[in-house]
Amino acid sequence: MNTPGVRSLLSSREVSVFHITGSIDAQRALREGAFFSARAFEKDGPTSAFYVAELTGQAISLGHYQRAEIALHPRAHDRAVRRVTGGSAIAAGAGIVYVAVGLRDASVFLECPKARVLNRNVRGLLVGLTSAGAGTHYFGRDFVSVERRPAIYVAWTRTPEQHVLLEFFVSANASFVPGDGVSAYPAHSSPPLLDKVPITLAEAWGREATLNEVADRILHKGYAKTYGLTLEESAPAPSDEKAARYFTDVVTDDSALRWSPPHEVPIGFISAGLRRDANGDVHEAVLSGDFFQDAAAPALLNDTLRGSKGTREDLVRAINTVYGRDGLVIEGVPSLNTILDAFTDVI
Known about the structure:
By secondary structure, the protein is of the alpha+beta class. 24% of the residues lie in helices and 27% in strands.
């Protein structure tokens, strides 16, 4: 009998591809992982793809929509590498195992409401790591807990074609939480990580968390076992041109925009940036900060506001068009009024 909510196609052992590599820096891993995972986006490819790497160095991974100028202390800027998923700045160096998961769409494993991308798709991760003997749970927000303490940073993006990329930063032998002196944000009114002390898998398991065991737990004892996947090993393609079209950078000249001060949201802060042309009309509008959203949202928000006078009424219309009922998903910003307040600061 099929598990309720699991697509029937998985009952016949869906084929998925994977690749495991060790000892590479975050900049290479983030790029290689995203492009390898994009194999799941092609019609003639598998519907899921997994990439695992053991990170080196001391990089800080910036969320796709963060501005380094306000998120990071200047002395951390030279360690910053930007990922294509949203969220907050995290440690992405030695002791971290990085996992990228590409999905043809959010419902490859389980039928998935559009606003539940993480909730529905971290279950293989939870099952796999729990098999090591330490309870692993997702209570919401942007991290998975082991023994009820933050242990894995989880992030997502969804392309305009509805393909999904998940990125997991597993605290194998070092925490994903950046050290002191990295963040430049003002103090947050609520305690970070819900006031929970981070934990590594090594602490929870009572032994070193090796790359091979972490990969085996997540891939084979997690996703493959949970969803009946047949995993086939594959090497990254020598050219990434085919996959590159799915992932677009946030291209903007920060200095040309007038920016709001940071506005607090549950997992961090957001800011709004606005630039007007010589006639006073909106030329560029950008929402920046610690959140996740559908990748189509930035262009739609900018296009909806561009050429308008940028009044409060224009802002309300644009925000509702992009993020309102039946609109695109933004996660980590519980009220659209916060977005409106940020843009109101710069009109």
